[in-house]
UniProtKB/TrEMBL annotation:
<dbReference type="GO" id="GO:0030488">
    <property type="term" value="P:tRNA methylation"/>
</dbReference>
<dbReference type="InterPro" id="IPR029026">
    <property type="entry name" value="tRNA_m1G_MTases_N"/>
</dbReference>
<feature type="domain" description="TARBP1">
    <location>
        <begin position="298"/>
        <end position="370"/>
    </location>
</feature>
<keyword id="KW-0808">Transferase</keyword>
<dbReference type="InterPro" id="IPR045330">
    <property type="entry name" value="TRM3/TARBP1"/>
</dbReference>
<keyword id="KW-0694">RNA-binding</keyword>
<dbReference type="Pfam" id="PF25050">
    <property type="entry name" value="TARBP1"/>
</dbReference>
<feature type="domain" description="tRNA/rRNA methyltransferase SpoU type">
    <location>
        <begin position="1382"/>
        <end position="1523"/>
    </location>
</feature>
<dbReference type="GO" id="GO:0003723">
    <property type="term" value="F:RNA binding"/>
</dbReference>
<dbReference type="InterPro" id="IPR044748">
    <property type="entry name" value="Trm3/TARBP1_C"/>
</dbReference>
<dbReference type="GO" id="GO:0141100">
    <property type="term" value="F:tRNA (guanine(18)-2'-O)-methyltransferase activity"/>
</dbReference>
<protein>
    <recommendedName>
        <fullName>tRNA (guanosine(18)-2'-O)-methyltransferase TARBP1</fullName>
        <ecNumber>2.1.1.34</ecNumber>
    </recommendedName>
</protein>
<dbReference type="Pfam" id="PF00588">
    <property type="entry name" value="SpoU_methylase"/>
</dbReference>
<dbReference type="InterPro" id="IPR056921">
    <property type="entry name" value="TARBP1_dom"/>
</dbReference>
<dbReference type="InterPro" id="IPR029028">
    <property type="entry name" value="Alpha/beta_knot_MTases"/>
</dbReference>
<keyword id="KW-0949">S-adenosyl-L-methionine</keyword>
<comment type="function">
    <text>S-adenosyl-L-methionine-dependent 2'-O-ribose methyltransferase that catalyzes the formation of 2'-O-methylguanosine at position 18 (Gm18) in a subset of tRNA. Selectively mediates Gm18 methylation of tRNAGln-TTG/CTG and tRNASer-TGA/GCT. Gm18 modification can enhance the stability of modified tRNAs.</text>
</comment>
Length: 1533
């Protein structure tokens, strides 16, 4: 018996044990087995637990015992107490903690074998008790809602109970197989209360604990179903699935896949119990939801089920129809097979990530919609599944293709007309549309994106093809889906633009307008103001097109229109306003208008449910629609009468102390809104005059009211009222028709404010209110009053502000904010935040007063310094920034703007650095632009720029601005615009020390990311709409300002060129530009088209071309040498080469003394880079065209130099030389240079003959027709238009580099004495980009909408679904070892990559078992990198090298033929060998092969036929060939 307990037990312990027992003799065989069982059972102890090896051995011995008792089934064994063993195992299982361990599995096996050895009565009793016990524990588990509580309440873990049930039912099934009936009188089976068992199983499946549910489905249900031989449980599970499938799709497919053999039976799995769900229409709908799921596992499960179901139907080869009106699946044997094959190929391919794999399959979608003679083979819902997968793909090309072609197919199949609604498809469709990367366009055409155009077609098709009710449902659903998506700006614009340009149809009611109002908040989140305004304009147009005016209410419309921002979209005088006026006329009558005025306009604040902006805007709209008269009329409502009634609350407000302040505040707010809404871009009109006239009548009382409120606003909660009163003052003072005597009103207001400010006992809110009013008055004086100070008499500003300034500046009182009162010491968090805001705003107002004072009066600086020293002022400013924060930056920098020219030093520069740092903390806010503008104005002013000590600091800050300007659009433009203002007020010579700034401006422009380019393209398209989109009338397009920086840089350059010192100054600029180019080129000599380096070199050449006529000979010589080196060394992009050749030709033209150097360049090019000769030949031709007096001599010399190159080996050089010679000969004839023409007459005839053969004809014709040789003239086309627009366009440079003449004009460029703005010769406009230039730049992208024919052959990934066992595929466990098949033994192989590759081969071809020398190999990285998870699916076992002989012998006894892959004297060729079904393949070591000691165990050696010299193949390849040959012979046949 000692041999039985050996540690090196083989893989088949039962066989070994039978051999040992046979040696002991048959007489005492059963006694020996019994003694072994008793000995092993003695090792089982509840105290010590169970030993793994002993449990395994006990299980094996019990199997031996069971074999010995075959034929005596059901007879009780009197020797062994199996019931005691059973109860002991049951107790050990209940106490076990590791339910996944080997010991637990062995105990379950012991439990099952023990049951099989019991007699009928014991068996029945133990089975019944065990099942009842498990039922009780599992019922207790499922009845507790909380998982942790339920597990604590159970004495047995649910996993243990399920494993016990599995073992018990396995024993029951085994008994059935032996035909051993336990009861002959009450049926053949033990009954466990079928209803209660089924209910428990249902509860376990949907218990919410995944591993319990999976264990129930995998282990228990199959055995229960097989034992009960009834499908009622399957029916109950299916009914539960149909009710809960939408709530948990993942769980639904988990259940269906594990139970696929019962629900979707196929010929591969013979099951007695089944319930085919393929006959239920909801099954196919569940599959559709799975195929479109975002979870890859669910999609894989759905595809598996789909293939099983379709394959089963296909095998029947009979028509299949679901008898229900909404059936989504049917089968036509004549047509369906091919269609579903295409469907599966498309769905499987879409799981790939690479576009090159998916792209060939996409056209196959057309095959799915091709109808047969009997009608559509495929229900349209399957087509929607395909498109849903396409548009949810990760690749943008695939998504764009799906969107555009869905719309195309939608139009062709007339979905809407045929009743195939796509409402459930809208959400994934809109999610796919909301992808900014899909909206790239050709910026040259400035058009709407392809997706936008397709959306227009979709909405138009729906309106044309659908009924009115269907349109109402569809567009209502569109609005609901849009409202639930978080939109990016570009996709949202395209969607609302498509809606705005769809045909009008009344489908949106008042409820939809409410949804639109909420949606506006989503639209207004867009940070790009220009696109945000365009979205509002398009949304308003869409509302007008789709709103049902028959059911609209004026209040709802007023509230909706009030949500628009007037400064961006809906303002008087714009197209949007005019469209709104026409729309209001359609559903509002004069009675409705009068009713609205009486209920909303004239009502008190508490009675109005609309916003004040909505009321005021609607009132003005009613007036413009002529539904509400402006002037007073007897007995009727009018704007004037209503406004006078509203404003009557201000009559005698100084005497009516108890009048309703809430009503007066509401009226004041209404007045502000009316003034803002009535303002028009077309000048004053009757409505505007009516509003201003009525307000003017009561203006004194309004100022009186505000003055009185200055001392009565005492609570912190009244903070917003101060903003209201200040807004009113700003609006009233901005109206010249209202404020006829502004100084009188403001003087009174200032007196009151000063009294309140200087009152020590006044509440903090009163101090705050008064200083805000004083800041407003100071700003008004700065903008409307001129300083008239003389040495004797001060100006009005100094007189009125001196007291205030003295109070604020003296003793640093400007930095003393209000102090909290005692009642305000304990504030809530919100009020504490509000108090902080009040403090910072108070300080801002105080410093704003000082800033406005120093900018409005010439003697203000002296006045302030008489009150406080410079050092103290600088210290006060630093303290203010620490206390008040970033809101003080603008007024502080306005003050420093006046101080910096006179008082500069380290402290001042430190303060400047502090301001710079604080500005960039505001990067994401609107305040950033105000502060940056103030900063630039502070530093870059003539009086500072001329200070030598400041120049270094200014250059540093300019460099930082240009650097940040690459990421912040508009920042660099702000600096260049300021410099334009500087040279407008001072001499351009001020820029003499700031060439670095000018160079950066001329070469500025980053390479934008793709998303940024898409935004810029969208902004360009919006701008092209002109007045059709109101945002163009209200807001400037700040998205495309890079070109504007360069255009303004050119204006600065031309201004400098007009100065007297132009040669010296321009020379410095050219040196700086050449240095910038050389520095960049030294790092990288080769570059791509439109790269940052290409654009920089292109801009450098443009800038030098502009100043070329102003260069002296010395500078021209240096520049010529630089151009020569550049052409000889670098391979330039076409645009750069064009400009270099043009510049070189112009230098030679203007400086005759340099022409002889041109011929030396040919010789140097021959030695350094022969390909560069093309450029010098082009230069020769351009110079020849420009010359007048010396043309004949130059042409003669040119032909002499070019002629040898006509025989050059370089094709391009030869082509250029021959073409140029032809052009020069034509020039000789035109100019009648007979001597030269006669001299080269023979050459002309030879050229004609030479260029009539081969590729020369076609290429020479292209070159001669190119604009550079046919139309371009270096002198006539020397304009800014050619340099900055025509040449970049014809050189295929991105349109981001094009600067049109209208942009130059808007930037102040009008040409110069040496260069014109526009071409008088318009010949270049007729040319397009040459083909060779397009080839150089990379061409264009294919459109995603291109529908190619389906290819004959596409790449397909094999999905062997037929061999997948569903429950194991779900659980990611390896396949069970097949009883028959190929076993690959690789125990002799040492190298892990070979072992890993073999595991993948074995898995792919379905090898039944793969044997390794050690299972530890599976954890190695080298193994895993080659196996790619194959080890998870192929059965793998371990046999050590020294155990191979015993293993091989055991396999021979099991009936396997042992085949060795080895070359021997008697080996059989692989192509001649016939593999048996049960084959074991032994692979040898990489170096030694199969060792001699194992050769005798083999039945046959097989070798692979070879033709080469090398001795053998790699062992991985060898194994793969053997496995394939086995599969070819045994599986494929």
């Amino acid at each position: 018996m000692a041999s039985i307990f050996t540690e090196d037990a083989s893989e088949s312990p039962v066989s070994e044990l039978m051999g040992v027992l046979n040696l002991l003799g048959n007489d005492k065989l059963e006694d020996n087995v019994n003694r072994i069982i008793r000995g092993l059972v003695s090792y089982l102890s509840l105290d010590k637990g169970a030993d793994v090896k002993k449990c395994k051995m006990l299980k094996s011995v019990l199997e031996v015992k069971h074999k010995l008792r075959e034929g005596e089934v059901g007879v009780q064994d009197s020797v062994l107490e199996y019931k005691t063993i059973f109860m002991l195992c049951l107790s050990l299982l209940e106490r076990s903690s590791d339910v996944k361990g080997q010991c637990f599995s062995s105990l379950c096996g012991v439990l099952q074998q023990t049951l099989l050895l019991m007699g009928r009565d014991s068996f029945c009793n133990c089975v019944t008790n065990a099942v009842m016990k498990c039922q009780e524990e599992l019922t207790l588990f499922v009845n507790n809602a909380d998982i942790e509580e339920s597990q604590c309440a159970c004495t047995i873990r649910p996993e243990v109970s399920l494993r016990i049930l599995e073992a018990v039912f396995a024993a029951l099934l085994h008994k059935q197989d032996e035909n051993n009936r336990l009861s002959t009188h009450e049926g053949a089976k033990i009954r466990f209360g079928d209803d209660s068992m089924e209910s428990l199983i249902l509860s376990l499946i949907w218990c919410g604990v995944e591993h319990i549910s999976v264990q129930t489905l995998q282990c228990v249900i199959p055995k229960v179903l097989t034992y009960m031989t009834d499908n009622s449980l399957l029916q109950k599970i299916w009914r539960h699935i149909t009710k809960s499938c939408h709530s948990n799709v993942h769980h639904t497919f988990q259940i269906l896949c594990i139970l696929a053999q019962f629900y979707v039976p196929c010929d591969l799995q013979n099951v007695e119990i089944s319930y085919s769900v393929a006959k239920d229409n909801i099954f196919w709908k569940i599959l559709q939801s799975g195929l479109t799921s975002a979870d890859p596992l669910v999609r894989k499960q759905a595809l598996y089920l789909m293939k099983r179901a379709v394959d089963g139907i296909c095998q029947n080869n009979m028509p299949f129809t679901l008898h229900c009106p909404d059936a989504v699946f049917w089968w036509d044997p004549a047509h369906s097979s091919k269609i579903w094959e295409h469907f599966f190929l498309i769905i499987e391919t879409l799981e790939e990530k690479q576009a090159h794999i998916i792209r060939p399959v996409l056209p196959m979608v057309n095959l799915l919609v091709a109808p047969s003679s009997e009608g559509n083979v495929l229900h349209v819902s399957w087509l929607l599944c395909v498109f849903c997968r396409i548009i949810s793909h990760d690749n943008n090309f695939v998504v764009k293709w799906g969107i555009m072609n869905f719309i195309r197919i939608h139009r062709e199949l007339h979905f809407a007309r045929n009743g195939h609604k796509i409402l459930e498809f809208l959400r994934p469709f809109m999610d796919a549309v909301n992808n900014s990367a899909l909206y790239s366009v050709n910026p040259e055409h400035c058009s709407l994106s392809e997706i936008g155009e397709s959306l227009k077609d979709l909405f138009e098709d729906v309106i044309v093809e659908s009924s009115h009710e269907d349109c109402r449902v569809f567009f209502g659903s569109v609005l609901d889906v849009m409202n639930s998506v978080s939109w990016a700006p570009v996709p949202l614009f395209n969607v609302v633009y498509a809606l705005a340009h769809a045909p009008s149809i009344p489908v949106w009611d008042q409820q939809r307008l409410g949804v639109l109002e909420g949606f506006m908040s989503e639209a207004l989140r867009c940070h790009c103001v220009f696109i945000r305004g365009a979205i509002q304009c398009m949304l308003l147009n869409a509302t007008i097109h789709f709103a049902d005016v028959a059911v609209l209410d004026i209040n709802t419309v007023a509230q909706y229109l009030g949500s628009y921002i007037s400064s961006e979209s809906l303002k008087r005088g714009t197209s949007a306003w005019r469209d709104s006026v026409k729309w209001v006329k359609m559903f509002v009558s004069k009675d409705d208008a009068a009713r609205f005025v009486s209920t909303s306009f004239l009502a008190s604040a508490g009675q109005v449910c609309l916003s004040v902006t909505a009321v005021a805007r609607m009132v003005v709209l009613l007036c413009d629609a002529e539904l509400l008269p402006c002037c007073m009329a007897d007995g009727t409502y009018s704007l004037a009468r209503s406004l006078c009634t509203v404003l009557s609350c201000f009559h005698n407000c100084d005497k009516r102390l108890y009048a309703s302040e809430a009503g007066q505040n509401h009226t004041l707010q209404l007045v502000i809104c009316l003034l803002n809404e009535s303002h028009t871009t077309c000048g004053d009109d009757l409505v505007r005059k009516t509003v201003t006239g009525c307000v003017n009548l009561i203006l004194d009382q309004i100022f009186t009211y505000i003055s009185r409120r200055m001392s009565s606003v005492t609570h912190l909660q009244d903070y917003h009222l101060v903003d209201l009163y200040l807004t009113a003052l700003i609006s009233l003072s901005a109206e010249p028709d209202i404020l006829h005597q502004p100084k009188a009103h403001l003087t009174k207001l200032q007196d009151v404010a000063l009294q309140v400010l200087m009152a020590p006992t006044a509440p903090p809110m009163c101090h705050y209110f008064s200083v805000r009013v004083l800041a407003f008055i100071s700003h008004w004086l700065r903008n409307h009053c001129q300083c008239t100070c003389t040495a004797i008499e001060p100006c009005v500003i100094l007189q009125t502000q001196s007291i205030l300034i003295s109070y604020m500046v003296r003793d640093g009182r400007v930095n003393s904010p209000p102090v909290k009162q005692e009642i305000e010491l304990q504030l809530t968090r919100d009020l504490q935040t509000l108090w902080g805001k009040l403090t910072s705003t108070y300080l801002e107002a105080g410093w704003s007063i000082i800033a406005d004072f120093v900018h409005s009066c010439l003697r203000a600086g002296d006045q302030i310094l008489s009150l406080r020293s410079v050092e103290d002022m600088v210290s006060d400013i630093g303290t203010a920034l620490e206390i008040g924060g970033s809101v003080l930056l603008v007024p502080v920098m306005n003050i420093l703007e006046k101080m910096l020219p006179k008082y500069f030093g380290n402290e001042m520069f430190k303060l400047t650095s502090t301001c710079w740092s604080m500005i960039f903390e505001l990067r994401k806010t609107e305040l950033f632009w105000r502060t940056m503008k103030a900063f630039i104005q502070m530093l870059f002013q003539p009086s500072v720029m001329t200070i030598e000590a400041c120049q270094h600091h200014l250059l540093q800050y300019s460099e930082k601005i240009f650097m940040h300007g690459e990421a912040i659009a508009g920042l660099s433009n702000m600096l260049v615009l300021q410099l334009q203002k500087v040279i407008a007020h001072a001499s351009p010579e001020i820029l003499e020390q700031y060439w670095a700034i000018l160079v950066e401006a001329l070469t500025f422009g980053p390479v934008h990311r793709r998303d940024q380019r898409i935004i810029m393209d969208t902004c360009r398209f919006i701008s092209s709409l002109g007045n059709r989109c109101s945002v163009n009338e209200l807001t400037s397009n700040d998205c495309c300002v890079d070109n504007e920086v360069r255009a303004r840089g050119v204006q600065l350059l031309l201004a400098v060129c007009s100065s007297n010192k132009n040669h010296q100054v321009i020379g410095k600029l050219v040196d700086a530009l050449m240095l910038k180019d050389s520095t960049a080129s030294s790092r990288k000599t080769r570059y791509f088209g439109d790269s940052q380096l290409h654009r920089m070199k292109h801009r450098v050449m443009q800038s030098i071309l502009v100043v070329e006529p102003l260069l002296d000979t010395e500078m021209a010589e240096r520049l010529m040498q630089w151009l020569q080196n550049s052409l000889l060394v670098e391979s330039q992009q076409p645009s750069v080469r064009y400009q270099q050749e043009w510049l070189l030709a112009r230098l030679l033209y203007h400086h005759p003394c340099l022409r002889d150097r041109l011929w030396d360049m040919f010789q140097e090019a021959r030695e350094k880079r022969p390909g560069s000769v093309c450029s010098f030949i082009a230069v020769v031709y351009q110079v020849a065209c420009m010359l007048k007096d010396e043309q004949e001599m130059f042409v003669d010399r040119s032909m002499h130099e070019i002629l040898p190159w006509c025989m050059a080996q370089h094709f391009s050089v030869r082509l250029y030389a021959q073409t140029t010679l032809q052009k020069l000969l034509v020039l000789c004839k035109i100019q009648q240079y007979e001597r030269v023409a006669e001299k080269y007459a023979m050459v002309e005839s030879i050229l004609q003959t030479s260029m009539e053969h081969g590729n020369a004809v076609k290429n020479a014709q292209k070159l001669q027709q190119d604009f550079y040789f046919s139309a371009f003239h270096p002198v006539e086309h020397y304009t800014l238009e050619t340099i900055f627009y025509d040449l970049p366009r014809l050189a295929s440079v991105t349109c981001e580099e094009w600067i049109p003449t209208d942009l130059f004009t808007s930037c102040g460029v009008s040409g110069a004495s040496h260069i014109e703005l526009e071409n008088s010769n318009r010949a270049l406009k007729q040319f397009s980009v040459a083909a060779w230039v397009l080839k150089t730049s990379g061409g264009t992208e294919d459109s995603a909408a291109t529908m190619a024919d389906p290819p004959d052959n596409v790449q397909k990934k094999v999905v062997p679904w037929r061999s997948i066992i569903p429950e194991e595929d779900l659980a990611s466990k390896p396949r069970h070892k097949q009883e028959e098949g190929l076993i690959v033994v690789a125990s002799l192989i040492d190298r892990l990559p070979n072992l890993g590759g073999l595991s993948r081969t074995c898995e792919v071809f379905g090898v039944s078992e793969y044997v390794l020398g050690s299972l530890k190999y599976l954890e190695d990285k080298q193994f895993c990198s080659l196996s790619v998870t194959a080890e998870q699916w192929v059965p793998i076992s371990e046999v050590k090298r020294h155990l191979l002989s015993r293993y091989l012998e055991a396999k021979r006894k099991d009936g396997y033929t042992l085949v060795g892959a080895e070359q021997t004297a008697s080996s059989t060729r692989l192509n001649d060998f016939k593999f048996p079904q049960k084959t074991l393949l032994l692979l040898g070591n990489e170096k030694e092969g199969i060792p001699p000691d194992l050769m005798p165990f083999l039945d046959v050696c097989v070798e692979i036929p070879q033709q080469g010299v090398i001795r053998s193949l790699n062992v991985h390849v060898t194994g793969a060939l053997f496995v394939w040959e086995y599969m070819r012979q045994r599986v494929l046949k």
